[in-house]
Amino acid sequence: MNRECTCEGKGVNDEFTAEQWKLVDDVVRKYRGKPGALIPVLEEVQSITGYLPESMQRRVAKGLGIPLSQVYGVVTFYSFFTMTPRGKHQVRVCLGTACHVRGAKRVLEEMERKLGIEPGGCTDDRQFSLDLVRCVGACGLGPVVVVDEETHKQVKVAKLDAIVDKYRAESPTAEE
Amino acid sequence: MEPVLLAKRHIENSTDINIAIGEGAYKALQKVLTAMSPPQVHKEVMDAVLRGRGGAGFPAGLKWKFLDKNPKRTRYLCCNADESEPGTFKDRVIMETDPHMLIEGMIIACYAIDAHAGYIFLRGEYANSFRILTKAIAQAREHGFLGDNVLGSGFNVNIHVHVGAGAYICGEELAMLESLGGARGWPRLKPPYAATRGLFYEPTVVNNVETLACVPHIVLRGADWFKGMGSENNYGPKLYCLSGHVNKPGVYELPMGTTLKQLIDQSGGGIPNGRKLKAVLPGGSSSAALTAEEVDVPMDFDSMSKAGSMLGSAGIIVMDDSTCMVNACWNVARFYAHESCGQCTPCREGTNWVARILGRIERGQGEPGDIDMALTICDNMLGQTICALADGAVFPIRSIIQKFRAEFERHVRDGACPFGAKRKWYSVLPE
Amino acid sequence: MPVIRIDQREIEADEGTTIMQAADKLGIFIPRYCYHPGLSIAGCCRICGVEVEDSPKLLMACATPVKEGMVVRTDTERVKMGQRAVEEFLLLNHPLDCPVCDQAGECVLQDYSFTYGFGESRFREQKIKQRKKDVGRDLLLYADRCIMCTRCVRFAHEVSGHDQVGVFNRGAHTEIGVFPGIRIDDLLAGNIADICPVGAFLSKDFLFKRRVWELKSTKSVCPACSVGCSVLLDHADGRIHRLRPRHNPNVNGHWMCDIGRMDYKMVGSADRLKKPLARKNGMLEEISWSDVIAYASGRIRQIITRHGADALAFVISSDATNEEALTFAKLAEKTGSLQNLRLLSGKRGERIEFAGGFVIESDRSPNEHGVLDVLKEFMPRESQERVTDLGSLAGKRGLYIFCGSHSDRGSIQLLARAAAAADFALVHGNVSSPLTEAATMVLPGAAYAEKEGTYTNLRGVIQRIHPAFDPPGDAGHDFDIVLQIAGAIGNSLPFQTVAAASAELARRLRGYVSMEQTGDTGWVNPYSRVAGATKG
Fold first, then answer.
1. Per residue in B223-244, pLDDT tens?
2. Which of C40, C55, C75 delimits the end of a domain?
C-alpha cells in the first residue's frame, strides 16, 4: 500500500536535526484529522526545514494518512514548495507584466551577476537563492524585488548593492 | 468622491480595532444583528446590484440566492483573497489598511447565507496581509464580533485564514476550493457549482475581498446610496489599480464607470518622460489590450465588455511607446504557460506552444506563418477548457497580435527585435 | 425519462445519464480519451465536445447530463474543428514512436489521429522528452507518450484504492507518475495498462511479444478464482499472449486481477500433459488413446465385477465445466457408484476486497459452485454431506480422478496417497502433479482455453467459455474423454455433444439455462445460493 512507506529511514539522514524532526512531527500532529490540512502542514514544515525532500514528504504523508502521490502532486504543483535546498535569504525578482514593462529584466540580470547564480540557483555559501516570480501584487511599485518577506519597490540597478549587502550583513559568517 | 473602501487608508493604525471602531467599523454588524433578518440583509445586497469585484461581475446577491439552503448541510463562505492577476493589488490595500471592513463584511455575509465559518484564501505572497488579518481577527474575537453568540445575538461565526502556496489558478473559484481541501488546484467540472458542492463538498459562496468590503456599507447606508454611484447596472465605488508607465501608479477609488482616459491622465498623472501612450491592459493581464485611441471608455463591466475587453480585476497596466509589444505579449503568454494547471489539453499544450512561438519571434527567429499560427492556436484554446485561464491567455495575446500586427511582422522580417531586445532571455519554460 | 435529439435522431435517455451515454445507446460514436465507463468523469481531454442548441460553447458529452428537449449535434464543422484542435495539441509533445510502441494498433491516439487529425504537424519547437520508467511488477511507464487523461490516477484512487499514481508538476510539464520508490504492485495493477488509451502504461509481460493486429480474441472466463471474470484470450498460433477483462456488469465490471491475468501461463506451460500414459513395470509410459481407453475401461469393469460398484470412486475437480461434471456424474451413475462421487476443491487464498468493491475470492478455482450443483443433483441425499470428504475414499480399489490445474494441493497429496494404495487409479488432468505421478493411467485433457462449456461462479452466474485453439499434442477434450470411457465400459450416455449436455443441464438443474442462452454476460441464476454480483 502506498501509504505505508517502505523505506522509512532511507533519506532520513543528518540533513535535519532531531529538533527539526520533532518540530515537523508536532506540526503534523497539530493538523492531523483536520480537513484540508496538507497545504498548511507543508507550508509550516518547509518553514522549519527550508525545503521538502522526499524524506520529509514521506514523514508528512505517513503522519497525515495521505497518499504519497497526493503529497508529491501538491508539492510539485505549488510554486512555494521546493524540493531542493534554498538559501538563507530568498531573493525573488518579479517579472510580472507591470514590472516587466518597467525594466525588471535588467534588474534580474544585474542580480544574477551580483549573486553569481541563475534563477533557481543557490549561492555556494547557502546565503542566497534566486527565483523569478510572476507578479507579487505590488504592480504600483514596480519593478519589485522581494527578499524573504520584505518588498523592495522601484528597484534600480544601482540600488541592488545596498539591498544585497543589507542581508549579507545580517548573516554573520561566523555562524558556521 | 468621498472615499468609501479606502476611507481609513490615511488614518494611522487603522488596522487596530479600536481605531477602526472609532471610524465606524462594526456599526453595520450591530445594525444587522439587532434590526435585520438574514433575508433582509440579502434583499439589501440584491437591491444594490453589487456585482462581483473579482472579475466576472456576477451579482453577489444572486450568488447568495443560488446557495443550497438545505438546513442539514453545512454552508461556507470563502473570501477570494488570492489576488494573483498581474496588474492587480486592490485587495491587498483593503486587507492592509482596513482589515476590519473585510471581516465585518464576511460576518454579515455569513449571517445572510446562514454560514458559520468563513475562510479567507489569501495569496501566499501576501505575508504582510497575513500578519495584519490574523491580528485583526484575534481582536475581533476579543471584542465579541467573532466566535459563539456574536454580540449576544445567538449567531455563531468564525473566520480562518488559509495561506495559498503559489498558484495563479487558485483564484479560480473551484480550484480554490480544491486547494483549500488540500489538493492540487485543479478546477472542477461545472456543474455542480460551488453553491451546491463547494468547500469540503458542501454549499459554498465565494466572494472577492472588494465585494465583501462593500457589504457593510450597503447594509448601513442602503441600496439606494450604493446605486447613487456609477452607471446603470454598474453601481458603487470601485478600486482601480494603475501600474506600468504612469507617473503616479497606485490604487484609486472612484465611482464605477470613470473613464480609462481619466484614470490614466488624471489619477495616474499621465505618462512619464514625455512618452506617448501605446497600449493598455485594462482589466489585469487577462483582458484584451486597448490601444491609445480606445481608452476613452467608461471602466465598468458593461462598457468594457462592449469595447471588446473587460473590467476584470480593474488592474490597469499602462504601456508607453517605448514598449515592444511582442515582448509584452510574450511576457503575458509565458505567465499563462507557467500558471496553466495542466488539466485540460488545449490550455496545457496551447499556452506553452504560443509562448514558445512568441519567444522565437521576439528573439528574431520567427518564420513567416508564425503569426497566423499563433492566432489559430488562440482560436483553438478559446472556450474549450474547464475554467477560464485559457480564455484569459487568449484575450491579451490575440488582441495584442491583432492590434499591433505590424510590429510582429517586423520582428519576423528583420530577424530581430527593433526595440533592441538582447539575446538573453528568461523563462521557466523549456526553450 | 428525458427525450433528446442527437444528430436528428430521437432517443429516450435514462434519467441522470450523459450525452455520451445517450449517443452510445444510439450507436453514434463520440471520441473520448479521459472518459471511461468504470471511472468517475474527468472531462479534461476535451475531445468529446458537441454542439448543444442554446449553448454558446461546445459542451463535453461525457460530462453533460441529458435534459428534456436537448438538441445535440456531433457532426458539425465546429465539432470537427474542436476534435482536430485537441488532436493537434495532444501530438505536440508526443514522440510519434508508433513503430516501436506496443500500443500501436489499439492506440486511441493513433486511431483518432487518422479519423479526426490534421495529418501534418505545425509544431517547430523542441519536444519535452521523458525517460521510460519501471513502475511496477508488470508495468512500464513511457511518460512522454502520455496524454494526461488521468484514467490511471482515477483507477488507483477509486478502484484499487492504492493511490500509487498521481499527477505531478503543472502546465506543459504536468506528468503522470509515482512517488520515488513507490511501485504499482497491487493485484489490480494490470488494468492500468488496459485502460491507458495510449502507450504510456504498458505490460512488461506482453512487451514486444506480438503486434496486436496479429492476435485473435476469444471470449472466455478467468479460471483463477470463483469470481469468474469475463475475459478475452488474446492468442496467436496456439499460444495465449495476454488476457484482458471483458466488461460484464453481472460479474467483474470492467476489471480483472493480476492473478487471473497471469494464469494463462499454465495453458502453454511445459508441465502440460500431452500424451496418454500407462504404468508399465512401475514406470509411466506413453500409450495410444485407443489402448488407454480400452485398458482403463477394462480395469473399471473388472473392479466392479470383483469388488462391487462401491469399490469404485469418482472425484472431479472444481476446474471442470458444468457439462463435464454432468458426464462424469452420469458415468458414476451408470457404474452405480454415485455414493462415492466427490469434489476436488480448488486452491484457497486470501479473500481480497478493493476500495471500489472488486473482490478476489478465496476459492481460487473457477467452478466449485457449478460442479457441486451437478454432483448434488445426482448423489443420494444421505451421501451428499460427504461430497468433499476425500478421506472417506481410503481403501477404495478403483479411482477415477478428474484433476484440475487449480486444485487444492493438500487434497491432491491426499488423493495421491489413495491412488498409490488403490488397485487402479485413472487420473485425468491437464498438468502433471503428484497425482499423475501416482496414477496407473493418465489421460491428458484440455485447459480452459481449449474447451467449450459453462462455469457457474460463486454467485451463481453461469458463463460460457469458448475454445481458442486445440489442446497441445495428443491431449483431448475432457468431455469426449469421459464419454469414451463411459462408452467403453458399455454405458453410453444419453448425449454426445457439449451442447446437448448443456441442454440436459438446463432441463435438470433449477435456474440453469443452456450454453447458448447465457449470452456474453452470463445468466444470473435466480435460485442461486448467493445472490448479487461483484461490483467492479
1. 999 999 999 999 999 999 999 9
2. C75
Cis-peptide into B191, omega within 30 deg: yes
Same domain, B202 and B277: no
Range of the domain at B68: 17-227
* pTM of the predicted structure, to 2 decimals: 0.93
Report the number of distinct structural domains present in chain C.
Answer: 2
In this structure, are A143 and A166 located in the same domain? Answer: yes
Global ipTM: 0.94
| Chain B residues inside the 8 Å CB shell of C90 | 345, 349
* CA separation for the pair C303, C308 (Å, rounded): 7
Interchain proximity A146–B185, CB inside 8 Å? no
Containing structural domain, residue C54: 3-75
* Strand, helix or coil for residue B352: helix
- Look at residue A135 and tell me if it is in a domain: yes
Interface contact flag, A137 B123, Cβ < 8 Å: yes
User: Is the separation of the CB atoms in B74 and B202 below 8 Å?
Assistant: yes
What is the distance in angstroms between the Cα of B70 and the nearest Cα belonging to chain A?
22
Q: Which three cell numbers stand for residue B174?
A: 473551484
Exposed, middle or buried, C85 (CB in 10 Å: 0-12/13-18/19+)?
Answer: buried
Whether A175 maps to a domain, the answer reads: no
B14-29 as b/e: b if 16+ CB within 10 A: bbbbeebeeebbbebb
Contact between A60 and A28 (Cβ < 8 Å): yes
CA of C147 vs chain A CAs: smallest distance (Å): 17
Q: Say whether both B263 and B391 belong to one domain.
A: no
Cell of C138: 508488470
- The bridge status of strand B76-81 relative to strand B204-208 is parallel
As a whole number of angstroms, the distance between CA C495 and CA B199 comes to 67
Q: Look up cell 487471473; give the residue.
A: C260
Compute mean pLDDT per 10 residues along chain C, 536 residues long, and list them.
94 94 96 97 97 95 96 96 96 94 95 89 90 95 96 98 97 95 96 98 96 97 97 97 97 97 96 96 95 96 95 97 97 95 97 97 97 95 94 93 96 96 96 96 97 96 97 96 94 93 96 95 85 40
Q: Is C147 in the B-facing interface, judged by CB distances under 8 Å?
A: yes
Residues A93 and A151 in one domain: yes
Q: Helix H segments across A37-89? A: 38-49, 54-64, 68-77
Q: Are residues A65 and A134 in the same domain?
A: no
Do residues A77 and B167 make contact, with C-beta atoms less than 8 angstroms apart? yes
The answer to whether the Cβ–Cβ distance between B181 and A36 falls below 8 Å is yes
Say yes or no for a CB contact (<8 Å) between A54 and C168: no
For residues A95 and A153, state if they share a domain. yes
Q: d(Cα B295, Cα B238) in Å, to the nearest integer?
A: 18
Buried b / exposed e along C154-191 (16+ C-beta atoms within 10 A): bbbbbbbbbbbbbbbbbbbbbbbbbbeebbbbbbbbbb
Q: How far apart are CA C217 and CA B98, in angstroms?
A: 71
Q: Which chains touch B (3 or more CB pairs under 8 A)?
A: A, C
**Among residues B320, B349, B367, which one ends one of the domains?**
B320
Count CB neighbours of A10 within 10 A: 12
Cβ contact B245–A74 (<8 Å): no
Closest CA to C458 of C519, C380, C381, C373: C373
With respect to residue A73, please indicate whether it lies within any of the assigned structural domains: yes
Q: Is the dihedral of CA A33, A38, A39, A43 positive or negative?
A: positive
Shortest CA distance from B355: residue in chain C: C125
| Domain end call among A77, A101, A128 | A77
Domain interval for residue A47: 12-77
3-state helix, strand, coil in chain B (%, to 5): 45, 15, 40
Closest to B424 measured CA to CA, from C398, C179, A110: A110
CB count, 10 Å around CB of C9? 12
